[in-house]
Write a structure and sequence with these properties.
binds aspartic acid, alpha+beta, about 30% helix, 17 helices
């Protein structure tokens, strides 16, 4: 080994020892005569002192050192002189008095600071990701990710799960996104698809009798570049045989709680996890991924609104809509401009407008107040249990509009700083509908086509598909959907029936899913699973705002790898080998 110790491990115990360290120059300070270097390796920083009187040759090299030079230093560990200790640094009580230093490799000045956590343009960071990853915050994130994955592996191994790899070159398995395709050279005109998830494979592993499977699985989805998505991301994919919904919920809940207690013991994770039906989540939070770190629940005012003369309310109700709102505590003082801003916020999300009702003594300054009697205003305020100084924000319209109210709820929580970063409010969303009517005018699965309907709802598949509930569960944390999962169909007839309901022709069913249907005829056990997203989970645990901060080499927001410059053109020859011609029209 080039070194005897790592920088970060040194402390009082080592005083008097001769050590050899290797690492990067984090900082250099010249103090007339003495040169101080903060030397950094993965474990931390240590101060190295170069004194010309002890080693003139060492001191001379030290004056040439610059940020990020890689050096090897030998010297003796000494206590820092009293008054110069640095309590902020783990090694702050000691320093290394250098006797010898060797430059192992110089460095150009880095394009951004490695030694400070400052805002840097993201594309620049991604272009030099190997330098970005040297920053302490990123090192911590990646190490946290390692610990999370290691914990998951150990947890599942201890419970009899087997880690099994599944292929990346496969065939389309639908999760509702577009596939990434890989052309075949040996089979002209044919393509592999990268898996959107190992969904069918893990089900086939259940048919194969493994009973408990997991995999740290890479998934590929060619989705529109909205929100915080990556073309490839990682799931803890798992599947079990002979289980019901409750078994998967319990296992996952135990996994998450023990994981957090182990890797982030300072975070608070209320147990048991809240359970909400899909219907309830939509009614009370305007979303199926509610952030439950705070209340700000949505209340329905339709009955009160029906008794008013307010045209906005009445027309929404006449068109089958509802009148609902939230109470923003203490925001009655909001100015007209601030209210307009909130109005714009909901309009951008599909609402026609926002009715703001400040509760401020007798003086309710609101357009709506003209159309509401004092009694009605009192009734509304009661519904919210609103008090003096609160602001009621009301929206009228159909279901979509309530999603705007859900978004407004989040916005108000943000403004009021109700989103405690140390709280992990997990919740299960249950009783999803099996199907939803798509914009293209057909049924599509809420989860994926392999999800089983609730047994008692199966008869409704023919008469009222919209009423069929699924054995589908989502797990949400702090407003972020971490995972979907379900108990699967394991019976050929039922699976075929669902495919047909979804509009697949017999021929398509045979070509796309023939293998699965056939497998179901050879004794497929009842089974189900889930696949928590590892990137999102680590993002939340690390307190980061995007998954790009916890993925070592992510694509940027235009799905490009700006370090490799990928995707990139390929040669004419390569295209020819793959039997492809470009049509860039
Ligand atoms: N394959 C599913 C998904 O990626 C998860 C599951 O149903 O287990 O959402």
């Amino acid at each position: 080994m080039i070194r005897t110790h790592s920088c970060g491990e040194l402390d009082r115990k080592h005083v008097g020892e001769r050590v050899t360290l290797a690492g990067w120059v984090h900082r250099r300070r010249d103090h007339g005569g003495l040169v101080f270097i903060d030397l950094r390796d993965r474990q931390g920083l240590v101060q190295v002192v170069f004194n010309p009187e002890l080693s003139s040759e060492g001191h001379e090299v030290a004056t040439k050192l610059r940020h990020e030079y890689v050096v090897k230093v030998s010297g003796e560990v000494a206590r820092r002189p009293p008054g110069t200790e640095n309590p902020k640094l783990a090694t702050g009580e000691i320093e290394v008095i250098a006797e010898h230093v060797e430059i192992l490799n110089p460095s150009k000045p880095p394009p951004f600071y490695i030694n400070e956590d400052v805002e840097v343009d993201e594309n620049l960071r991604l272009r030099y990701r190997y330098l970005d990853l040297r920053r302490q915050r990123m090192q911590q994130n990646i190490i946290l990710r390692h610990r999370v994955v290691k914990f998951m592996r150990d947890f599942l191994d201890a419970r009899g799960f087997i880690e099994i790899e599944t292929p990346i070159l496969i065939k389309s398995t639908p999760e509702g996104a577009r596939d990434y395709l890989v052309p075949s050279r040996v089979h002209p005109g044919k393509f592999y698809a990268l898996p959107q998830s190992p969904q069918q494979l893990k089900q086939l592993l259940m048919v194969a009798g493994f009973e408990k499977y997991f995999q740290v699985a890479r998934c590929f989805r060619d989705e529109d570049l909205r929100a915080d998505r990556q073309p490839e991301f990682t799931q803890l994919d798992l599947e079990m045989s002979f289980v019901e919904e409750e078994d998967i919920l319990n296992l996952t809940e135990e996994l998450f709680t023990s994981l957090v207690e182990e890797v982030k013991p300072t975070m608070c994770i209320p147990k048991p996890f809240t359970r909400l039906s899909y219907q309830d989540a939509m009614e009370r939070y305007g979303t199926d991924k509610p952030d439950l770190r705070y209340g700000l629940e949505i209340h329905d005012l339709s009955d009160i609104a029906a008794g008013t003369d307010f045209a906005v309310f009445r027309s929404a109700l006449e068109h089958g809509g509802r009148v609902k709102g939230i109470c923003a505590p203490g925001l009655a003082h909001y100015s007209r401009r601030q209210l307009e801003e909130l109005g714009e916020f909901v309009k951008l999300r599909g609402a026609k407008g926002l009715v703001a009702l400040p509760i401020a003594g007798d003086e309710t300054k609101s357009v709506a107040a003209k159309f509401l009697s004092p009694g009605q205003i009192d009734q509304i305020a009661m519904r919210f249990r609103a008090g003096d100084g609160d602001l009621l924000l009301i929206v009228a319209g159909e279901r979509k509009v309530m999603e705007a109210l859900g978004a407004l709820r989040q916005e108000i929580a943000r403004r009021l700083e109700l989103t405690d970063p140390n709280l992990l409010a997990f919740c299960w969303i249950l009783n999803f509908p099996l199907l939803e009517w798509s914009e293209e005018g057909r049924w599509q699965p809420m989860h994926h086509p392999f999800t089983a309907p609730k047994d008692e709802d199966i008869p409704l598949l023919d008469s009222a598909p919209e009423k069929v509930r699924a054995k589908h569960y989502d797990i949400v944390c702090n407003g972020c959907e971490l995972s979907s999962g379900s108990i699967r169909i394991h019976n050929r007839e039922l699976q075929e029936k669902i495919f047909k309901l979804l509009g697949y022709s017999d021929e398509e069913i045979r070509a796309r899913f023939g293998h699965l249907l056939e497998a179901f005829e050879y004794g497929a056990p009842p089974h189900g699973g889930i696949a928590p997203g590892i990137d999102r989970l680590v993002m939340i645990l690390a307190g980061e705002q995007t998954i790009r901060e916890v993925i070592p080499f992510p694509k940027n927001q235009s799905a490009m790898d700006v370090m490799f410059d990928s995707p990139s053109e390929v040669s004419e020859e390569q295209l020819k080998e793959l039997h492809l011609k470009l049509r860039l029209d």
